[in-house]
Amino acid sequence: MSTRTILITGGAGFIGSHVVRLFVNKYPDYRIINLDKLTYAGNLANLKDIEDKPNYSFVKADICDFDTVLKVITDNRVDGIIHLAAESHVDRSIKDPFTFAQTNVIGTLSMLQAAKAYWESLPEKYEGKRFYHISTDEVYGALELTHPEGIEPPFTTKASSGKHHLAYGESFFTEDLKYQPHSPYSAAKASSDHFVRAFHDTYGMPTIVTNCSNNYGPYQFPEKLIPLFVNNIRHRKPLPVYGKGENVRDWLYVEDHARAIDLIFHEGTVAETYNIGGFNEWKNIDIVKTLIRVTDRLLGRPEGADDDLITYVTDRAGHDLRYAIDSRKLQKELGWEPSLQFEEGIEKTIRWYLENQDWLDNVTSGDYQKYYEEMYKGR
Ligand code: NAD
Ligand code: DAU
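# nicotinamide-adenine-dinucleotide complex -> structure
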């Protein structure tokens, strides 16, 4: 594929910044345009190390603003789009579903419609073009937790063969499962996925959709479990575990997700869906204990010093019990595997947050403080 000008939306956010960095560094001949509205979750500080590279540029814009998006795509003769911009936090979606429908559904439709208008105006039309939509495993709903103590996993990868990998049920999310979203966030993502597929089926747009499990790593906004808890442990603040902490998530190091996106963008088959996951299931409470153990060790605190920070709070409404991705299609067809053992990835991640307190303070100042206090009022 000869794509040379790639528009990445949401590149100032957590995963987007890793994708932008990878593409800018790996493909000096490509022009990488990062389009981001810079909401509370978008931060150009995430891209400081590459912002001066000649193949990188930034446009501050809202994906819902069709005229601006069309102009950016047309003026730059964009031939590939990797669409990550979204509202991404489930708890926020429970409080404010309208914003999620607007950004995730209307915003995606606006991106699709703008790409269609430009690409269909060209003599070669869709040839050599790619619209790659980044979605989530949450669209599949929740899996049963049939083995609360965990069982031997039916699949392993190099990175998941470590001692902590367990499966908590026999069923997994595969690409052919029907969508059953439960939260306003996942309902909005599901709707956007449907629009992307509809643009392939109706207009012949070369689209790809991937559904990934929970990412962790540097630059994640500290309202999400891992960065929030590391920051709270450091400052000896309570760790609000929802419900009993029995919910299971499948964790993937963010750079492994970015590598998968690179591979699929270049070699994935049009109109296909690929699931991306780490074969790395953890119960929340076990993650929390690991975070305490490793953070305390890195801070030189005695073992067990911060165990009493664990505070069980009211459960998240509609809290999905278990997510577990079956990513064998991607492994088999394109040879992708997660590269990091969880123990290694989590220590690297915690170390990064401890060494980047300025970044954390910066992104959690101002309006976010008010939101956070409001969110936990009464819990
Ligand atoms: P994030 O919240 O960290 O970043 C989202 C980015 O999108 C921010 O930079 C924000 O400014 C930008 N944005 C939001 N609304 C916008 C708008 N209207 N116009 C332009 N830009 C806008 O999100 P993330 O965790 O990096 O997730 C990125 C994508 O990956 C999302 O589509 C999400 O659904 C998906 N995803 C996330 C995970 C995960 O674990 N974080 C897992 C699977 C899929
Ligand atoms: O599965 C992919 C999804 O992973 C992405 O699509 C979402 O964008 C991303 O935010 C993430 O969703 P989760 O809801 O799983 O992530 P979060 O970090 O918010 O929560 C992880 C688990 O920890 C979840 O079971 C809820 C629980 N939790 C979370 C927070 C913030 C707590 O117990 N306490 C908390 O304070």
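# post-check
The longest strand covers residues 130-136.
The first helix runs from residue 14 to 26.
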